[in-house]
Amino acid sequence: MARSLWRLTVRDEFSAGHALRGYEGKCENLHGHNFAVEVTVEGRCLTPDTSLLLDFKTLKNVLKDVLEDLDHHTLNQTPPFDAVNPSSENLSRYIWQTVAAHLAGHPDRQAAAVRLVSVSVSEKSAQSATYMEIQENGESDTPSMPS
């Protein structure tokens, strides 16, 4: 039997400088990007009153709050990237973990009822790094929200 599943995606960007530690080439020098970020969540239950999985505004505001700590900073001087290489891979994982925490603690019940699927970070439009967490059994752990 088929089960319904909805996915929502929002995009935003931030500007920051970084230098890749241990990299041999131009990127080992401090340089900047307009990083594009894409966040995708999923869920199985829509709100009974508005038929929304989650208000796009809520998801956009969560992402904006997370990116505020990175925007117009030198990432190599900004925790956790003062100790962790500020690669797109590590940025996507950091943003995923921070967005997940914001959603779990959000006052909107719907925010806690969605599952964060993935976060992608692009330094240029032609390439991106995507972070996600997959359950060992291959099954989705998307929470269901009671009607």
UniProtKB/TrEMBL annotation:
Pfam families: PTPS (PF01242). Its EC number is 4.-.-.-. One of its GO terms (molecular function) is metal ion binding. The active site is at residues 27, 72, 123. Keywords: Lyase, Metal-binding, Queuosine biosynthesis, Zinc. GO terms for biological process: tRNA queuosine(34) biosynthetic process. Binds 1 zinc ion per subunit. Its cofactor is Zn(2+). Zn(2+) binds at residues 18, 31, 33. Pathway: Purine metabolism; 7-cyano-7-deazaguanine biosynthesis. Belongs to the PTPS family. QueD subfamily. PANTHER family: 6-PYRUVOYL TETRAHYDROBIOPTERIN SYNTHASE, PYRUVOYL TETRAHYDROBIOPTERIN SYNTHASE. This is 6-carboxy-5,6,7,8-tetrahydropterin synthase. It comes from Candidatus Desulfovibrio trichonymphae.
